[in-house]
Amino acid sequence: MILPQLTASRELIDLSGIWDFRLGSTELELDKLTAPLADAVPMAVPGSYNDQYEGKEWRDHYGYVYYQRSFELTPELALGQKRLLLRFGSATHNCVVYLNGQEIARHKGGFLPFEVRLNGVAQVGVNTLAVAVDNRIDFSTLPVGNEQGTAMFGAELPDFPSVTNTKLTPRNYPNFDFFNYAGIHRPVKLYTTPEAYIADIVVTTEQKEGKAFVHYQVTGAYDPVKGSSAPAVDCAVTLLDAQGHQVGAAQGVIGTIELASYTPWELGAGYLYRLQVRYGTDVYTQTVGIREVKVEGTKLLLNGKPVYLKGFGKHEDSPWRGKGLDESLNVKDLSLMRWINANSLRTSHYPYAEEMLDLCDRLGVAVIDETPAVGLNFPNLKDDWYQDHCRTAEHHREVITELIARDKNHPSVIMWSLANEPDTAVRAQSALDYFKPLYDLAHDLDPQNRPVTVVVCNNRYVDDLVAKMCDVICFNRYYGWYIFGGDLDAAAQALRYELEYWRAVNKPVILTEYGADAVPGLHQSTAGMFSEEYQVEYYETMNALLDEYPYVVGEHPWAFADFNTIQGLYRVDGNKKGLFTRERRPKMAAHYFKQRWGQIPSYYCKQ
Ligand code: GCB
Questions:
Q1: Residue 402 falls in the annotated catalytic set
Q2: Confidence at 500, pLDDT banded by 50, 70, 90
């Protein structure tokens, strides 16, 4: 799937703005999709709905909500000879779409795009678009929600009819540590293409003997609007450098452009070429970064050079907007990443907006691209989660497929992460049986064959088989916080032990999360937990160890910025492990990392 573009052959109309909105219930109410929404309130799209209004009914809503807006179409758009499409960047989590009283689409999964053709349904003049979005999560969704029941807590509760769970008001119980924001989170766009159109473009690059080779494959499709027969279509491509000069050209839907000299895509220097594709009358421009990612022994190589990843796990999260796309926030976050001398991020714990990946391409930021598979871990479950409860496998395949289809061409994407912290140690074989086919699927689907990982965090890490199967060992660890909280000596020993353990696996290792909450402005002369000083001492202690191990090829402190979570004893107004506050002000630890990372080069740092 390619991102809609305004080109000489394609119109593009952004439907972002204020839509009509109403909260619903757990039943899909068709009249809210087929008739004007009564008592609607204004709601900004893109944006999460939860924090745009005050009150628990907004914040803690469970079930459907309804969005509506109208738009007018010219006769050319509604009845012309071009395909007319409606595309959602994302709607979280499940959604049903109606146009002019007719169902036109359904989509499962809150962090990936979907689109539908409107020809035959759209009309000249006013059209009414209505969208039902459901925020419910359970054992079949990604991310995973707890299905509330006594067994979940490892305790058999006595059956008092007045207090059993069946009497509780249904609500979401996220099995993950971020607020379950919902709504239309990314732009909704109308766009057109000719009937014979570019459906997909795949680009791979190679570097050999001082030359670069840009291989491309265009998938053309014919989708007649008015029943005409398929025209003969030819395909031609030209490659432009960053200054807009043509550096190569080719004919046909599959081909290679050879460059005798070229500029590779590097960390901190995201040099981009543009492949201009013409297929019949359709034109589209695909950006291309020439770079190669490879694992060799314990090294992660970018363009043949060993890299050291300095960066973050983060979230799409900010006040008011929740998880709604905010391009100025994305620019700011990447500007702060440059300020702090970072070179990479992980899209913890779901695919981020395509707009963010475009920025990472451009700024030379490496991305570990993660699926929304978070919460596949139930420490208190007595039985085998994968065998007995998990209903996610099929959806997991879907999200991996959709993610790679969406992000395959981004040079910034250097690795796929299939999941965050699934329980892969307690029932190790069962977890391996679950993950191995997904690992193979990701490799099969990716034309660039990037490394594939599963980010793990198991106390019994020696039992884990999934991490060892992966191309890169990515693990999260909170010694000094959840384990040995306040005791950095013990924490350091525990981390050393674990780092030693991974040595024998002989693969690159990235510490994809480690951190300590710090309440901004809480200072102590003798550092204790939750103070800014403790956060700094924690990182000084852990980083000293990371520096000792040559096979540790990356450090991603958790997290980039403070973020909102479900309420709980461990969370005072959200998770405070950010190096920046939720408003993006630096804590002491941000200054510490700026200094540290200023001295660690992106390449050859452990040579
Ligand atoms: C983790 C999770 C992350 C949490 C973090 C924490 O291991 O991957 O989602 O936010 O710990 O702060 O507890």
A1: no
A2: very high
Q: Is 575 in the pocket of ligand 1 (CB under 6 A)?
A: yes
For the cut 50, the answer to whether the pLDDT of residue 147 exceeds it is: yes
Domain count, the chain: 3
Measure the N-to-C terminal CA separation of the chain; round to a whole number of Å.
Answer: 40
pLDDT tens for residues 328-387?
999 999 999 999 999 999 999 999 999 999 999 999 999 999 999 999 987 667 788 888
Cα of 177 vs centre of ligand 1, distance in Å, is: 6
Residue 501 counted as domain residue: no
Tell me, using a 6 A CB cutoff, whether residue 577 lines ligand 1. Answer: yes
Domain that includes residue 351, residue range:
307-478+510-516+554-598
Question: Over 90: is that where the pLDDT of 167 sits?
Answer: no
Is 2 inside any structural domain? no
Q: Which residues contact 41 (CB under 8 A, 6 or more apart)?
A: 20, 21, 22, 53
- What ligand 1 atom has the least distance to the C-alpha of 577? 12
CATH of the domain at 51: 2.60.120.260
Per-residue pLDDT reduced to its tens digit, 192-206: 999 999 999 999 999
Q: Are residues 25 and 145 in the same domain?
A: yes
* 370 shares its domain with 390: yes
Query: Is 209 found in the same domain as 105?
Result: no
Q: Is 195 a catalytic site residue?
A: no
Does residue 534 form part of some domain? no
- Does the beta carbon of 562 lie inside 6 Å of ligand 1? no
Q: Using an 8 Å Cβ cutoff, are 419 and 430 in contact?
A: no
Q: Which atom of ligand 1 is nearest to the CA of 563?
A: 10
Tell me, letter by letter, the H, E, C secondary structure of 298-318: CEEEECCEEECEEEEECCCCE
Cβ–ligand 1 contact at 476 (below 6 Å) = yes
Contact (Cβ atoms closer than 8 angstroms) between residue 92 and residue 323? yes
What is the spatial distance between Cα 289 and Cα 530, in angstroms, rounded to a whole number?
42
Give percent of the chain with pLDDT exceeding 70: 96
Q: For residue 348, give the ligand 1 atom closest to its CA.
A: 9
**Residues near 245 by beta carbon (within 8 Å), at least 6 away in sequence:** none
* CATH number for 379: 3.20.20.80
Flag whether the pTM goes above 0.85.
Answer: yes
- Is the Cβ atom of 195 under 6 angstroms away from ligand 1? no
